[in-house]
Amino acid sequence: MENPFFKNIEKKTGVNMAEVLKLANSLQNANFKDEKTVREVIQKVSRIANKPVPKDMENKIVESIVKDGKKLDMNTISDMINNKK
Length: 85
Prior knowledge:
Sporulation protein
């Protein structure tokens, strides 16, 4: 990641952009109706963002995505983690 834009984001957020891009690529063919897949994605986002997700929050996110059909993308997961509702 020699792109100055990404380096600037990394410096400001502490988030490794290579990991974010790797995760984004893995999401393209993921089955979001599969609970295990959704849990793995949540855990990866949590690790990349360095924000632990309590088990009850993880369960709510999984239910929202798998059972309720909520759209899954980085913003959705990030919002759920940050809002902890």
